């Protein structure tokens, strides 16, 4: 990191009175009245290298990333260039950008520079969780599948605590139904939501007045800044499909997506009111709403080929259907979930030994023990091993969902639980013994390892498209601020990941799930460094809320 002497350049055109020199490959905005100081010397640094202090970061010192392979999935640019960021934005992208006294220069030659990853499906409402995700290349972590309620309280609490990454929430369909149908008062707490999942009182179909009541609650949440509606339909699979259509119509009117954990597939439950994945396609076609299918690999299991074909047919017909997936064969949920009933497990070809309790690490021994745990602690988080990654056939199913055209990478990251009951820690490295799903720490790095480094199924530009660009585009209509994310051109948000293409990989395992990924060399959130030289900066809390804007 080197500071150099300054000159001046006009953003958009040269200022004739100052200079007639051009900068090869410089990409600048067409219209602006802003001056940017780039520097006017090409010689050795006038000042010695210096360390950037936390105070300098807070003052918004600009950063010049020098000589990396820059990938912008928005414009298709893929080549060696410099990137200048400041005031939370990308100020310039091009070759040979001049140095300046008021900027920090970082040599990123040999590294990839791209827009930070946007996780549409993260349940880590904590500093500890955000730090694990930062080391995985994430700059924006959003809880959209489950959502939170009241959403205003969720935003306020995250802002008060401080966050390393940007954050946001959808309106919670489950909490709205639980309030109206079961009298459960929402408190914007993920643990409360988990404990409610197994309560049959909220899982039933609604009367017309009840339907109107919880739809009204969701409408209020959208007006309060929710990023759409999160729908845990798989936890109330017998509810009337007409209710989902009513919700889709509301979402269409509001210009807001739905993010759905689908109900059972017909192969698993022939008596289901409607096939879970087909329901997404039907609702999108009938209402025109934007429908997002969450974690398609885990809800589809061995039937993923059929599900993906149905979703592709829907997309080809013009429906607004998007799909997300993650690279793990095991899912994570509350042990009291409907689909973890021993009878339901048998239908899917699984048994209780596929269930592992997160907080204790206990592997369920038999059906009797599973029934006991479900009765005593239905909200206890657990892992369900639905696909065996050691089996070549089942591993191929995971790869098929990742290779599906336009499939978005999303983690379904979960909180970390320690033996003393804590789910938050500001220590780094995290205290030992924390239990979570390894996808919390490793989803994006594992996807890059599998799909780029090991199989070549994705190019690096395609990887950034799936991890950064496509998730941002899901949000464009509901949150105009998202239009500056997932890209790396001038004016884009300075949410940037710099990674080593030769070493990027996950290290978290089911037995040691809080091990950070390696290979993320630098991470910037609104231009503020959160990871520098592969090390997390513990005093960095630049995360800001991403809110929906009601029509």
What are the SSEs and their pairings?
Elements: E1 9-10, E2 35-36, H1 54-58, E3 62-72, E4 77-86, E5 89-94, E6 103-107, E7 112-115, E8 117-119, H2 127-134, E9 138-148, H3 151-161, E10 166-172, H4 173-182, H5 190-196, H6 200-203, H7 208-223, E11 229-231, H8 241-254, E12 258-260, H9 276-287, E13 291-293, H10 296-300, H11 304-316, E14 321-325, E15 330-334, H12 342-347, E16 355-357, H13 367-376, E17 381-385, H14 392-403, E18 408-409, H15 439-454, H16 460-474, E19 496-499, E20 520-525, E21 528-532, E22 535-536
Parallel strand pairs: 3-6, 3-7, 8-9, 9-10, 10-11, 11-12, 12-13, 13-14, 14-18
Antiparallel strand pairs: 1-2, 3-4, 4-5, 7-19, 15-17, 16-17, 19-20, 20-21, 21-22
Can you walk me through this structure?
- There is one protein chain.
- The chain has 551 residues and is an alpha/beta fold.
- 30% of the residues lie in helices and 19% in strands.
- It has 16 helices and 22 strands.
- It has helices spanning 54-58, 127-134, 151-161, 173-182, 190-196, 200-203, 208-223, 241-254, 276-287, 296-300, 304-316, 342-347, 367-376, 392-403, 439-454, 460-474, and strands spanning 9-10, 35-36, 62-72, 77-86, 89-94, 103-107, 112-115, 117-119, 138-148, 166-172, 229-231, 258-260, 291-293, 321-325, 330-334, 355-357, 381-385, 408-409, 496-499, 520-525, 528-532, 535-536.
- The strands form four sheets. Strands 3, 4, 5, 6, 7, 19, 20, 21 and 22 form a nine-stranded mixed sheet that branches.
- Strand 9 (138-148), helix 3 and strand 10 form a beta-alpha-beta unit.
- Helix 4 (173-182) crosses helix 7.
- The longest helix is centred in the middle third of the chain and has 16 residues, at 208-223.
- It is globular.
- The protein starts with 8 loop residues before the first strand and ends in a 15-residue tail after the last strand.
